[in-house]
UniProtKB/TrEMBL annotation:
The gene is hisC. InterPro entries: Aminotrans_II_pyridoxalP_BS (IPR001917), Aminotransferase_I/II_large (IPR004839), HisP_aminotrans (IPR005861), PyrdxlP-dep_Trfase (IPR015424), PyrdxlP-dep_Trfase_major (IPR015421), PyrdxlP-dep_Trfase_small (IPR015422). Pathway: Amino-acid biosynthesis; L-histidine biosynthesis; L-histidine from 5-phospho-alpha-D-ribose 1-diphosphate: step 7/9. GO terms for biological process: L-histidine biosynthetic process. Residues 41-339 form the Aminotransferase class I/classII large domain. Its EC number is 2.6.1.9. This is Histidinol-phosphate aminotransferase. GO terms for molecular function: histidinol-phosphate transaminase activity; pyridoxal phosphate binding. Homodimer. Keywords: Amino-acid biosynthesis, Aminotransferase, Histidine biosynthesis, Pyridoxal phosphate, Transferase. The modification N6-(pyridoxal phosphate)lysine is found at K209. The keyword Transferase applies. Pfam families: Aminotran_1_2.
Length: 346
């Protein structure tokens, strides 16, 4: 069967998600999931009928939350489908390219490679910001530029003035896709207000993180209405199931939003607790993080990763040398992780 696959697929290395990597333990801080397991009530009638492609109630609820109009919202199977749709809709295989800036989320590259679209790489600067001169020199043939802020795995915010400069550089040339999967932990840093000024801006959002709905696979793309209409040409006929739409609307209700904001405060507090505790350990460097995770540099990152793994504390290894990404879980998980790392370096 392997030889029957497209040549591009034969060469492809799949994205190693946290679940694919696996592990065994009782502390799971490797996938930037919420520690909260909220309950929802489902009305399971009507499952014999197909759902609408874009459920109106769901779009209106998220539009109100995000501060845009419903026609500026597309709902997808997680933000990952939004990434794929952007590449499929705007990039001609074998001709066009995407551009992204590692270290960053791996699915931009994999979505392009799967479709046969060139991947152009401009690494972030030493302080993990956009290298704008090199990006400008690399834009020929680029149709989509992906920028993640807060960036995964580094956790930092991309400077707003650099995002605006990038939008100016790409006017009438390329779409700038801002991946705001973690923006609910720092909503003041969103670029959603720039949608009114830049037609070439698209924003990816998800309910997996702050809304504690990773298992629901529910994401959104925010953009001007014309761009949304282009994406609707390539999206699957029924991307959102009835239960997903129902749970999403409950999570976006007044009470659901109040609960989410309270839980975000708790997670941000635990992130600060982890940051303070880890920073006090000699030889450990903790980078400022604005999502629900921290990137931490250890004297011997690979060895520590294996030690925590063997102890049932599952963290996320990083492509950055000696760095490990640690999700902010509940206080018990954070305390157990911090205690183990303290003892490891004593």
């Amino acid at each position: 069967m392997e030889k029957l696959a497209r040549e591009q697929v034969q060469k492809l290395t799949p994205y190693m998600s946290a679940r694919r990597i696996g592990g065994s333990g009782d502390v799971w801080l490797n996938a930037n999931e919420s520690p909260f397991d909220n309950e929802y009530q489902l009305n399971l009638s009507g499952l014999n009928r197909y759902p609408g492609c874009q459920p109106e109630g769901m779009l209106s609820a998220y539009a109100a939350y995000a501060g845009v109009q419903p026609e500026q919202v597309l709902t997808t199977r997680g933000a990952d489908e939004g990434i794929e749709l952007m590449v499929r809709a705007f990039c001609e295989p074998g001709e066009d390219a995407i551009l992204y800036c590692p270290p960053t989320y791996g699915m931009y590259a994999i979505s392009a490679e799967t479709i046969g679209v060139e991947r152009r790489v401009v690494p972030l600067t030493s302080d993990w910001q956009l290298d704008l001169p090199t990006i400008e020199a690399s834009l020929d043939g680029v149709k989509v530029v992906f920028v993640c802020s807060p960036n995964n795995p580094t956790g930092n915010l991309v400077r707003r003035e650099d995002i605006i400069t990038l939008l100016e550089l790409t006017k009438d040339r390329a779409i700038v896709v801002m991946d705001e999967a973690y923006i609910d932990f720092c909503p003041e840093a969103s670029t959603v207000d720039l949608l009114a000024q830049y037609e070439n801006l698209a924003i990816l959002r998800t309910m997996s993180k702050a809304f504690a709905l990773a298992g629901l696979r529910c994401g959104y793309t925010l953009a001007n209405a014309e761009l949304i209409q282009v994406l609707l040409k390539v999206i699957a006929p029924y991307p959102v199931s009835l239960p997903v739409a129902e749970i999403a609307q409950q999570a976006l209700s007044e009470s659901g939003l109040a609960r989410m904001k309270y839980q975000v405060l708790d997670i941000n507090t635990n992130r600060a607790y982890l940051q303070a505790g880890l920073s006090a350990i000699s030889g450990v460097k903790v980078f400022d993080g604005w999502g629900n995770y921290l990137l931490v540099e250890f004297p011997d990152g690979d060895a520590l990763f294996k030690a925590t793994w063997d102890h049932g504390i599952i963290l996320r290894n990083s492509p950055i040398e000696n760095c490990i990404r640690i999700s902010a879980g509940n206080r018990e998980e954070c305390e157990k992780t911090l205690t183990f790392i303290r003892n490891y370096y004593q």
